[in-house]
Amino acid sequence: MKNLTVFLTSAAIFAASISPVSAAGCHASYTDVCVPIASDVDCSSGSGNGPAYVVGPVRVVGPDVYGLDRDGNGVGCENG
Known about the structure:
3-stranded antiparallel beta sheet; 1 helix; disordered N terminus
């Protein structure tokens, strides 16, 4: 049996830790609503500039990489 050496850069480890992807192409840090994977996602009821928007509420179950849960209570886009 041959030995296999794997090299991971810190950037690859960081990207994997903040960008989980579910099978459906939705960000795995959010449930109840499909939050797309984009350069930025904002709540449709807010004043963000996108490019992607989500209608909430959404449950935050991982790192809140898009900042949808401003008050840190585990629910993002509470006003839609």
